[in-house]
Amino acid sequence: MRDERTYFAAMLRMQPPPPRHEPPPPPPVPPPAAEFFVDRDPTHFRHILNYLRGNRMNLECRGAESLAFLDELLLEAQYFNINGLCEELARRIAEITRRQKEEASEDKDFRLIKCDVCDVQDVFHEWVIEKNYEFESMQVCDDLCLVVLARRVSRGELALVERLMKT
């Protein structure tokens, strides 16, 4: 075994796994015809075995459904005490969570700006060019102008607004 602290190394030694901070004792040789029953979810077990065979993970995961799967797989890796896999899964979960917060939502932040007709160009430059808003519409009444601008907001910004509205 590559990592003597895993569940499987302990099972083959026929003793409980050592705590993570202690070095493993030398393994005794199991009986030649020993059979083991592992009562865990087979959905995740193949990924555990593939990791143990190659010490790497081949999962292409995206979205909330994949995030739930990775959370479940992390629990299995923790159960089996496979530290390298736990670290890799925790890194992937954090990356997916970060990406989801940064993704644009379907919601928009609208701005209604009232300005003089002679200032429309400056408003356009400030809001569309510098702040990445999209032009929606404009109404001119005498020397005044009403400009409607919008931009898509990220999921992280929406979550922040929802939290602020609850307080």
UniProtKB/TrEMBL annotation:
UniProt GO BP: protein homooligomerization
Residue ranges of domain Potassium channel tetramerisation-type BTB in the record: 33-86
Signal peptide region: none
SUPFAM superfamilies the UniProt entry points to: POZ domain
Gene3D superfamilies in the record: Potassium Channel Kv1.1, Chain A (3.30.710.10)
Pfam families linked: BTB_2
Domain of life: Eukaryota
PANTHER family on file: BTB/POZ DOMAIN-CONTAINING ADAPTER FOR CUL3-MEDIATED RHOA DEGRADATION PROTEIN FAMILY MEMBER (PTHR11145), RE57120P (PTHR11145:SF8)
Protein name, entry field: Potassium channel tetramerisation-type BTB domain-containing protein
